[in-house]
Amino acid sequence: MSLRFSGGSRRSCLQSGAGSVRPPSGGLAGSSAGGSSVASGGFSCALGIPNVGGHAGGALGNTAGNERGLLSGNEKVTMQNLNDRLASYLDNVRALEEANAELERKIKSWYEKYGPGSCRGLDHDYSRYHLTIEDLKNKIISSTAANANVILQIDNARLAADDFRLKYENELTLHQNVEADINGLRWVLDELTLCRTDQELQYESLSEEMTYLKKNHEEVDTILST
After folding, report:
1. Is residue 123 scored above 60 in pLDDT?
2. What's the pLDDT score for residue 199?
3. What number is the average pLDDT over the span 65-73?
4. Who contacts 67 (Cβ-Cβ below 8 Å, separation ≥6)?
5. Among 18-27, 79-88, 200-209, which stretch is predicted with the lowest mean pLDDT?
6. pLDDT tens figures, 81-91
7. Burial class (CB in 10 A: 0-12, 13-18, 19+), 61
């Protein structure tokens, strides 16, 4: 059988003690409808609950209508059993409340010592590391600046390399065009050389012919003059 109590009911039972639950001797001897109802009502008020739960509670609440209820046979033994069980339950509740209070006290003490925003119990002084941290921060900043400078130089070198590559490609194209023009002019030069050689041969032939004609003309003049 399980019994449920509110906080106020449990306190009232603790203040009055388990003896207050017991009915006076002979109070339930006359198991009439009215007496049973008063006894059950007084027991319910002492416990702070409407009935005692389960089958026994139903029997205590309905004694007026059921002559073979829980208190019809051996009322004193039944009430003693209920009182013992209630006292045991209250002892368990008291022990659990004390354990809960002790646990809450330990948790509160732990949070006061080691909780967030509390330095009590943690005597850690990190001030000696501040200079090292600042030095490392400065080194990180200088290293970051040097790295950015190196990256900038790499980007500039890449841009210069791209510019030189474009210039090289343009110059290579121009060189190939000039070489093609030179090859064409060489063919023209060969043709001109052949023409010049032919002209020189013709000039020599004409010179010889003119010299021969001149000599013949002088001979004819000499003959005519004689």
Report:
1. no
2. 93
3. 48
4. 31
5. 18-27
6. 999 999 999 99
7. buried
Neighbour count for residue 55 (Cβ, 10 Å): 10
Residue type at position 59: A
Cβ-proximal residues to 185 (8 Å cutoff; 6+ apart), any chain: none
Structure tokens at 59: 């029997």
Q: So what's the pLDDT on residue 116?
A: 58
Domain residue extents for the chain: 7-114, 133-225
50: its two tokens: 């409407």
